[in-house]
């Protein structure tokens, strides 16, 4: 029997039709893939071959990418519900499903895009890598130049609410003498900054790049601020102590004395000679080490394994949400923001569900889940070990931070401590959660440098 089909048989027509459909589907699939990888920014080209040129950047995400995002969210295959009634197994199913529901139906990226484009965005090449930054100059005379660095799982979006109060303090009831010129860069591999294609872009190289950036913008003297990874970069800048650096303000301080680091690594109970504040900090750190640091271990050792962060928006969202404060993981403010009301009596402060989704969506659209994770792989020291910084340093301790740094430890780690304050509200995402308190802390902490 021949295996060839007659030229006009129904079977042959069905075969040809199916083959054509398969080819068409393949073409459409390739087209969709190409569209979802279109550039989402427009950058003014440099004139000539000047790699140090500062180029304006504008954000515009093709609609096809937003359609694809919603399609992927709706196609999520969900896991079983956790077998506990708390968050001890990770991001609760109800939390991520509520976020996904809002993300796929009610969330509007264009509002975030408009906010981004209302700010002066730029790109410049430093040490072979494009660095994105927002640069807002104050109208006030004698404003202090300040570089503000975000953390993980954050981005420049974390800083939106503090830009106005810091650059234009008189519009917010503060003094003109507290004004700042703000430079807010995206860390290497984050947001609209370039993704390193070789190793070496860790906190040390980033700290040096920020000095180049500030000098390139014409600032001969400046201060630095940061929380989370941004605090780590600030600490490194302080340790490198470039002559241009006036001082630093950190809301995620590195204060652990060597003997505390050693005891925590051994899993020992709190040493008997600790004060009440020191014992509380030790217990927070011990609990975090045992229950809330799996994400950091994976990103610090095997970031490339996290392929799902590039393939599944809900997988990416769940990974980014799984960041704790000093008491819970996900952080209480994140949980309350996602549900839109206080959870377990904890307020989200000024943090909203759309704020959280703006940040997550930026990671998705820029496909930076893994490139951002590599910053942990590039970091080769204990983030919380005593910073050993001698430049002037201001420290703000928020009550729901990963740990409340005791003043005794802080004074040992920062040898020229010009400001130390413990707040009664706010947590790990302080600029997002409590922007008014945060800006007041930055002003007060860096005010001694103005004299």
From TrEMBL:
<dbReference type="GO" id="GO:0004301">
    <property type="term" value="F:epoxide hydrolase activity"/>
</dbReference>
<feature type="active site" description="Proton acceptor">
    <location>
        <position position="428"/>
    </location>
</feature>
<dbReference type="Pfam" id="PF06441">
    <property type="entry name" value="EHN"/>
</dbReference>
<feature type="signal peptide">
    <location>
        <begin position="1"/>
        <end position="34"/>
    </location>
</feature>
<dbReference type="InterPro" id="IPR000639">
    <property type="entry name" value="Epox_hydrolase-like"/>
</dbReference>
<feature type="active site" description="Nucleophile">
    <location>
        <position position="228"/>
    </location>
</feature>
<dbReference type="InterPro" id="IPR010497">
    <property type="entry name" value="Epoxide_hydro_N"/>
</dbReference>
<dbReference type="GO" id="GO:0097176">
    <property type="term" value="P:epoxide metabolic process"/>
</dbReference>
<feature type="domain" description="Epoxide hydrolase N-terminal">
    <location>
        <begin position="55"/>
        <end position="158"/>
    </location>
</feature>
<keyword id="KW-0058">Aromatic hydrocarbons catabolism</keyword>
<keyword id="KW-0732">Signal</keyword>
<feature type="active site" description="Proton donor">
    <location>
        <position position="376"/>
    </location>
</feature>
<dbReference type="InterPro" id="IPR016292">
    <property type="entry name" value="Epoxide_hydrolase"/>
</dbReference>
<protein>
    <submittedName>
        <fullName>Epoxide hydrolase domain protein</fullName>
    </submittedName>
</protein>
<dbReference type="InterPro" id="IPR006311">
    <property type="entry name" value="TAT_signal"/>
</dbReference>
<comment type="similarity">
    <text>Belongs to the peptidase S33 family.</text>
</comment>
<keyword id="KW-0378">Hydrolase</keyword>
<dbReference type="InterPro" id="IPR029058">
    <property type="entry name" value="AB_hydrolase_fold"/>
</dbReference>
């Amino acid at each position: 029997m021949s295996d060839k089909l007659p030229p006009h048989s129904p079977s042959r027509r069905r075969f040809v039709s199916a083959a054509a459909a398969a080819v068409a589907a393949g073409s459409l699939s390739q087209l969709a893939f190409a569209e979802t990888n279109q550039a989402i920014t427009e950058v003014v080209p440099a004139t000539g071959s000047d790699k140090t040129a500062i180029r304006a950047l504008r954000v515009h995400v093709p609609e096809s990418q937003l359609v694809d995002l919603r399609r992927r969210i709706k196609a999520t295959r969900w896991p079983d519900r956790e077998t506990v009634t708390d968050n001890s197994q990770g991001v609760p199913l109800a939390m991520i499903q509520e976020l996904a529901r809002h993300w796929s139906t009610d969330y509007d990226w264009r509002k975030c895009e408009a906010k981004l484009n209302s700010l002066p965005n730029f790109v410049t090449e430093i040490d072979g890598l494009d660095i994105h930054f927002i640069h807002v100059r104050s109208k006030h005379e004698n404003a202090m130049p300040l570089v503000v660095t975000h953390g993980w799982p954050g981005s420049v979006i974390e800083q939106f609410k503090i830009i106005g109060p810091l650059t234009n303090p008189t519009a917010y009831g503060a003094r003109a003498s507290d004004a700042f010129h703000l430079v807010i860069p995206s860390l290497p591999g984050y947001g609209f900054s370039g993704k390193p294609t070789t190793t070496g872009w860790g906190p040390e190289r980033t700290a040096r790049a920020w000095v180049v950036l500030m000098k390139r913008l014409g600032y001969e003297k400046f201060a630095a601020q940061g929380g989370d990874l941004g605090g780590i970069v600030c600490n490194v800048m302080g340790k490198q102590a470039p002559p241009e650096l006036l001082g630093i303000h950190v809301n995620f301080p590195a204060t652990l004395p060597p003997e505390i680091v050693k005891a925590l690594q051994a899993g020992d109970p709190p040493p008997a000679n600790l004060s009440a504040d020191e014992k509380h900090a030790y217990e927070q750190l011990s609990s975090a080490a045992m229950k809330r640091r799996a994400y950091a271990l994976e990103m610090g050792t095997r970031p490339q394994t996290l392929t799902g962060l590039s393939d599944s928006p809900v997988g990416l969202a769940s990974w980014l949400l799984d960041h704790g404060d000093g008491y819970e993981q996900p952080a209480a403010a994140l949980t309350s923001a996602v549900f839109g009301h206080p959870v377990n009596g904890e307020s989200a402060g000024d943090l909203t569900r759309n704020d959280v989704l703006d940040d997550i969506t930026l990671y998705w659209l820029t496909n930076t889940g893994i490139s951002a994770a590599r910053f942990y792989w590039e970091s080769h020291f204990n983030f919380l070990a005593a910073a050993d910084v001698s430049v002037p340093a201001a420290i703000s301790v928020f009550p729901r931070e990963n740990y409340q740094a005791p003043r005794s430890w802080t004074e040992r780690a920062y040898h020229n401590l010009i400001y130390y304050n413990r707040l009664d509200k706010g947590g790990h995402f302080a600029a997002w959660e409590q922007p008014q308190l945060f800006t007041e802390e930055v002003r007060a902490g860096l005010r001694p440098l103005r004299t």
